[in-house]
Write a structure and sequence with these properties.
The protein is mostly helical. The protein has helices at about 5-25, 25-30, 40-60, 65-80, 80-90, 95-120. Helix 3 packs antiparallel against helix 4 (about 65-80) and helix 5 (about 80-90) runs antiparallel to helix 6 (about 95-120). About 25% of the residues are buried.
Length: about 120
């Protein structure tokens, strides 16, 4: 297995895992939805889960891998405000929780880079 196919499989797996978690355990994700978005937080949680599952499926298939990886990068950028909201909401929580919330912020960039690398390698 090549490094690029391994990266693709891992990205597809990560997106499928997160999408599944959004569906089977939505409550923690609901709290991350910015209040200014219209509609219910649960609707946005489910929509983001469906988007993650769709990205996973697209990345998993060689014919749609490039488009799926680009969609994954865009989705990761689009959900960044939820990570900012989490960091802001958790700023008074105990240190380990605060560290987890703040730690998510800089991790978004390598996740986006990972998706872009998969897209590049699929081209």
């Amino acid at each position: 297995m090549t490094d690029s196919s391994r990266a693709s499989r891992r990205l597809a797996s990560a997106m499928a895992t997160m999408g599944t978690l959004h569906m089977i355990a939505p409550k923690p994700f609901d709290a991350l939805i910015p209040e200014r978005l219209p509609g219910s937080a649960r609707t946005w949680t489910y929509l983001s889960g469906v988007a993650e599952l769709g990205c996973a499926a697209a990345v998993a298939h060689p014919r749609t891998r490039r488009a799926g990886a680009l969609a994954t990068a865009a989705l990761m950028a689009a959900v960044f405000p939820a990570n900012v909201k989490m960091a802001r909401d958790w700023r008074h929580r105990p240190l380990p929780l605060r560290a987890a919330a703040y730690g998510r912020l800089p991790l978004q960039a390598p996740m986006i880079a990972w998706a872009l690398r998969v897209a590049r390698d699929a081209a």
